[in-house]
UniProtKB/TrEMBL annotation:
SMART domains with a match to the protein in the record: PKS_KR
Upper classification of the organism: Bacteria, Bacillati, Actinomycetota, Actinomycetes, Pseudonocardiales
Keyword Protein biosynthesis: no
UniProt keyword list: Oxidoreductase
Protein name (record): 3-oxoacyl-[acyl-carrier-protein] reductase FabG1
Enzyme class: oxidoreductase
Length: 234
């Protein structure tokens, strides 16, 4: 049976690969965006996850088109990299508000309908940076680490209602966002990977669709690294 799936920030990169993987399974998939084009086959909903009113309106629009959200993939995120001593509070707050508080906003909206249905899947897209740290990414790493505590708290609160909450932590994946990384930094990251290549968006999508499936129904509060072995031990 087709499920109502929402992927925030699902109009490009990893988010788009995740959305298309759910479409391939026959699900009804909505993606949030902030004004960019949305590929055919997806319901595009304009929504800035830093705005609670927009988040609430987006969930109403999705429910009218596809039914209440049953699978939430919280993927929307930004970076604003700079070293700690150069990072001002606005740069820190902006990343936290989008990546962490935005995840809270969409999870809260999704949980309400999931509780009524007594079934749901919530999947947060974190990063190896949230587990291992990354120079110049104090704000980003903090936001991605926070998703682990959020998911595990939600897992404990909602598990008795057959709602799971898990985290996928990608490593370096070749997308538009990572194209701006210097060749020197790419070589450094590649040297840390046990599998000597970068990841593909489709490999992240495969982990997400599994966590949303019935086969993973006894998995909750887990962090699944998909990073080629960069973060082993975390």
């Amino acid at each position: 049976m087709a499920r109502s799936v929402l992927v925030t920030g699902g109009n490009r990169g990893i988010g788009l690969a995740i959305a298309q993987a759910f479409v391939a399974q026959g699900d009804k998939v909505a993606v949030t965006h902030r004004g960019s084009a949305v590929p055919d086959g997806l319901l595009g909903v304009r929504c800035d996850v830093t705005d609670g009113a927009q988040v609430e309106a987006a969930f109403k629009e999705i429910a009218e088109a596809h039914g209440p959200v049953e699978v939430l993939v919280s993927n929307a995120g930004i970076t604003a990299d700079t070293l700690l001593l150069r990072m001002n509070e606005d740069t820190f707050d902006r990343v936290i508000d989008t990546n962490l508080a935005g995840a809270y906003r969409v999870a809260k909206q999704a949980a309400s309908a999931m509780l009524r249905k007594r079934w749901g899947r919530i999947i947060f897209i974190s990063s190896v940076a949230g587990l291992s740290g990354s120079p110049g990414q104090v704000n980003y790493a903090a936001s991605k680490a926070g998703l682990v505590g959020m998911a595990r708290s939600i897992a404990r609160e909602l598990g008795s209602r057959n709602i799971t909450a898990n985290v996928v932590a990608p490593g370096f994946v070749e997308t538009e966002m990572t194209e701006t990384v210097s060749d020197e930094r790419k070589a450094e990251i590649l040297g840390q990977a046990a599998i000597r290549r970068f990841g593909r968006p489709e490999e992240i999508a495969a982990a997400v669709t599994w966590l949303a499936s019935d086969e993973s129904s006894y998995v909750t509060g887990a962090v699944l690294p998909v990073d080629g072995g960069v973060g082993m031990g975390h």
